Amino acid sequence: MNVLRRFWDEHPRLVMWIVLAIGMVAIMIWAAWSVGFTAAQWAWLVAVTIGLAGACSWIISWED
User: Fold this and answer.
1) Residue 64 pLDDT > 80, yes or no?
2) Of all helices (H) and strands (E), which one includes residue 44?
3) Are the beta carbons of 41 and 17 closer than 8 angstroms?
């Protein structure tokens, strides 16, 4: 637990990116599960969603 706490204290933006990306990918998979995407399309959607989460965490950090 101390390792997680130290990682949180040393890299708060990276942790925010990881948590936001996990949540966004989970919601995207839940919302688009029945669409019928191919594996390559799913891979691109997940990659773009992770990138979007990074952009969001970067914009949120502008207030610091």
Assistant:
1) no
2) helix 39-60
3) no
